[in-house]
Design goal:
Number of helices of chain A: 4
CATH class of chain A: Alpha Beta
Order of helices and strands of chain A: EHHHHEEEE
CATH superfamily of chain A: Hotdog Thioesterase
Distance between the termini of chain A: 19 Å
Number of strands of chain A: 5
CATH architecture of chain A: Roll
Oligomer: homodimer
Structural class of chain A: alpha+beta
């Protein structure tokens, strides 16, 4: 038996700050100037500093870890197409939707998308997650 | 012309601290207790707290953003299979290897793997990255 159903969906929203981008650079060791150096970023096609794809994408992980399926989740797979840059003045919303369920193996196949406040898709992809494992 | 070649490879290593895992939980909003609560984690099949997949995976992004292809990189795609849990006492190494190059479109197709100090694969996947864009 599964408490989940196809089409079930959950979302979380967040605006990342430049302080968080800076902290994530230190943490991840990804110090590409496109995330850190405003003068450098102004000369690129992005026009200004962008958020790391793994930081904006982590909001997808938050929905999976907190809500759908939440506690007991075991992350098996995530893929992400980075469609548009995300900026610190964007309010990002990660939405996770159940596309398929394998109730025998307790596996959810999820559509995962991250949009900005203009409803533009920033990240599009899918995830595979095990839920409520019986085996300790 | 491309400065890159098939088989070219770059790596970075790091040991994440629990303080970084805690900070990443706050930043990403992923507060699943498997990352934060040692007593809770001890009762799961992991036995102890594990690092967020997006935090260990961010080391892949660091290799791409810093080294291969480094400055000017535009991240188009990343997929990750989470093979094994990563812990704060692991020294993780992300290795990125060029599998294919499209020199006309300036695109690298990369194999991306994250291993622990026992050479066990923690994350396996691939990435697609644009390098040195001419436009703008």
């Amino acid at each position: 038996m599964s408490d989940f159903f196809v089409g079930q969906s959950a979302s979380m929203s967040k605006q990342f700050s430049q302080e968080e981008v800076d902290a994530f650079s230190k943490m991840s060791l990804d110090i590409n100037p496109i995330h850190l150096d405003e003068a450098y970023a102004a000369k690129t096609l992005f026009g200004r500093r962008i958020i790391h794809g793994f930081l904006s994408g982590s909001l997808i992980s938050a929905v999976i870890g907190n809500i759908l399926p939440g506690e007991g989740a075991i992350y098996l797979h995530q893929d992400m197409d980075f469609r548009k840059p995300a900026y610190t003045d964007d309010v990002l919303t990660a939405t996770v939707t159940v596309e398929r369920i394998n109730p025998e193996k307790h596996i959810l196949y999820l559509n995962t998308v991250c949009t900005n406040e203009k409803k533009e898709v920033v990240i599009e992809g899918s995830a595979v997650v095990k839920y409520y494992p019986k085996d300790k």
